[in-house]
Design a protein that fits this description.
By secondary structure, this protein is of the alpha+beta class. It folds into two domains: 243 residues, FAD/NAD(P)-binding domain (3-Layer(bba) Sandwich), CATH 3.50.50; 154 residues, Succinate dehydrogenase/fumarate reductase flavoprotein, catalytic domain (Flavocytochrome C3, Chain A, domain 1, Alpha-Beta Complex). Helices cover 27% and strands 20% of the residues. The chain is built from eleven helices and 21 strands. Strands 10, 12, 13, 14, 15 and 18 form a six-stranded mixed beta sheet that branches. It has a three-stranded antiparallel beta sheet with strand order 2-4-3. α1 packs across α2 and α2 crosses α11. It starts with a strand and ends with a helix. Its cofactor is FAD. Keywords: FAD, Flavoprotein, Oxidoreductase. This is Fumarate reductase flavoprotein subunit (Iron(III)-induced flavocytochrome C3)-like protein. InterPro entries: CobZ, FAD-dep_OxRdtase_2_FAD-bd, FAD-oxidoreductase_2, FAD/NAD-bd_sf, Succ_DH/fumarate_Rdtase_cat_sf.
Length: 441
């Protein structure tokens, strides 16, 4: 068995190195998971964030697989721990990897090596030989590598800035939004095989503008900033755009169910930038980001430091503060703190921003992975003209759009990757053994 990895060894594993947890169905408390998170609740959570843009059969396959995968993962060296302080609402739904995504990736690679898998780094596959929907060979530059079966797990196209630019186009303000995107994950997901498979006639699913896109600190590096660049304070304050006005309900739902909509919301704002504004009451209630916020003793001072129009900023904050109807604040539930007579409203966790010091975070769209991918089925097969291949399979981000047409909820990407990685690997092994049997006969 041969694994061809596009990256050098130190960047192996794609975006899995940046993850930290897995969303898991369970009907009773299980090791690091508390209470219960039954199939129907998981499905309703997914249905809500995708707006129904999901294949229910494949989604439920993922959900059910998430309930049994942890023992398999442990056998390959993965370790789990309870949810961390500050990871709101996830102790019931998500199992955290001890050591994070890097430890997960290292465990898998160690297990693969122990099983005799030959791993080659700096070996990007740029094309496949396919005959009548069957895989024949993979090509790395001039080298041609034949095999009896193949699993494609090459990610999306989020690192291909030209493709992002083409997908998002130019907006009515004459801007090219993708020029201001930051890539949270690997720089090696260029979409080369995705584009190649499209040219080969593979069936494609998904919208190229839909992605796991988070509002992250504008000071984040262009690639591989990972989880620490996220700013989780949005639901505790207000978000304003470059014109110093609010543009969406910050308290719509729990943060793990809504954090991944904010990148797209910011992408639609002028200059593709937004500003999260909080006061000292919010400090300590969210996971601290890697970069400190801009700090000020007064709101007018904060507006000036963020280079926002002071008069408009103060009108926005004063209108919001006056509209707050504070009841029993509790950020662990959908509380009764809300605004009245304000557009857009803030439906939960609405408290006046009035206690100094004040903080502001400039945020940009941070793309984790794109949802355009290969259409597949419950056996992870690649399809050509509606017909499944019998020896070419797909897993991970390269097929996640079958389940995630849009939206995101924390940890579901790893649920999809784990479920379909196992399916694709099992099906590829069966296809290879079948080829062996035919050769012997």
């Amino acid at each position: 068995m041969l694994l061809l990895e596009a990256s050098p060894r130190e960047w192996r594993g794609g975006n899995s190195q940046h993850t930290r947890n897995l969303r898991c169905m369970h009907d009773a408390p299980q090791d690091v998971l508390v209470d219960a998170y039954p199939e129907e609740e998981f499905w309703q959570d997914l249905l809500k964030v995708t707006g129904g843009n999901t294949d229910e059969r494949l989604a439920r396959l993922v959900i059910r697989a998430s309930s049994t995968c942890r023992d398999w993962m442990r056998r390959h060296g993965v370790r789990f721990q309870p949810s961390l302080a500050g990871t709101l609402h996830l102790s019931r739904t998500n199992a955290f990897f001890m050591g994070g995504g890097k430890a997960l990736v290292n465990a898998y690679y160690r297990s693969a090596e122990n099983l005799g898998v030959d791993i080659r780094y700096d070996s990007p596959v740029d094309r496949l030989e396919i005959q009548d929907g069957r895989f024949v060979a993979a090509c790395v530059g001039r080298e041609r590598i034949e095999a009896r079966a193949c699993v494609l797990a090459a990610g999306g196209f989020e690192s291909n800035r030209e493709w992002l630019r083409e997908a998002w186009g130019q907006n009515e303000r004459g801007e090219w939004p993708a020029d201001n995107f930051i890539i949270r994950g690997t720089r090696f997901n260029q979409g080369v095989l995705l584009k190649h498979m499209t040219a080969q006639g593979a069936d494609i699913i998904g919208d190229p503008t839909q992605a796991h896109c988070v509002a992250i600190d504008a000071r984040a590096p262009l690639y591989d900033g990972g989880i620490v660049t996220r700013v989780d304070a949005v639901s505790l304050g207000v978000m304003v755009n470059r014109d110093a006005v609010r543009f969406y309900d910050e308290g719509e739902d729990f943060w793990p169910k809504r954090y991944a909509i904010w990148g797209r919301l910011v992408a639609l704002q002028p200059g593709q930038i937004g500003y999260c504004i909080i006061d000292s009451k919010a400090v300590g209630r969210f996971m601290p980001p890697v970069f400190p916020g801009v700090k000020a003793g007064t709101l007018p001072e904060l507006a000036r430091k963020l280079e926002l129009d002071e008069a408009t900023f103060m009108r926005t904050l004063n209108d919001y503060n006056a509209a707050c109807r504070v009841g029993s604040f509790d950020h662990t539930v959908l509380d009764d703190c809300h605004t009245e007579g304000l557009t857009p409203p803030k439906t939960h966790w609405a408290r006046p921003i009035d206690q100094a010091p004040f903080y502001g975070y400039a945020l940009r769209p941070g793309v984790t992975f794109t949802y355009l991918g290969l259409k597949t089925d419950a056996r992870a097969r690649v399809h050509f003209g509606g017909e499944p291949s019998d020896n070419l399979f797909v897993a991970g981000e390269m097929m996640a759009g079958n389940v995630l047409g849009r939206g995101y909820t924390a940890g579901v990407g790893m649920s999809i990757g784990t479920a379909f990685g196992r399916i694709a690997g099992t099906q590829a092994a069966r296809a290879a053994l079948k080829e062996d049997a035919h050769a012997i006969a």
